[in-house]
Amino acid sequence: MKIFDPELKKLAQDIIVSQQNEITQMKAILERLHHEREEANYGNN
């Protein structure tokens, strides 16, 4: 789908950037939780 209206195009780009940033933050949180879980499991063995 092509967006020709400059305001809509800017809004769409802003939404995409915002979502990409949120995904990056979620990945970092999941990575940290994964490492914390690994450390907890390692400590219990």
Give a structural overview.
The protein is mostly helical and 45 residues long. The protein has one helix at residues 6-44. The longest helix has 39 residues, at 6-44. It is rod-shaped and about 60 Å long. The N and C termini lie far apart (54 Å). The mean pLDDT is 93.
Keywords:
rod-shaped; 0% strand; 45 residues; mainly alpha; 1 helix; 87% helix
SSE inventory with pairings:
Layout: H1 6-44
Quick overview of this protein structure:
The protein is mainly alpha-helical and 45 residues long. Helices cover 87% and strands 0% of the residues. The chain has one helix and no strands.
Largest sheet: none
Number of helices: 1
* Poorly predicted sequence stretches spanning 5 or more consecutive residues: none
> Whole-number average pLDDT?
93
Q: Could you give the order of the helices and strands?
A: H
Give the CA-CA distance, first to last residue: 54 Å
How much helix is in the residues? over 70%
Query: Tell me, what's the shape?
Result: rod-shaped
Structural class: mainly alpha
Could you tell me the number of beta strands?
Answer: 0
Radius of gyration: 19 Å
Could you state the oligomeric state of the chains shown? Answer: single chain
Approximately how much beta-strand content do the residues carry? Answer: under 5%
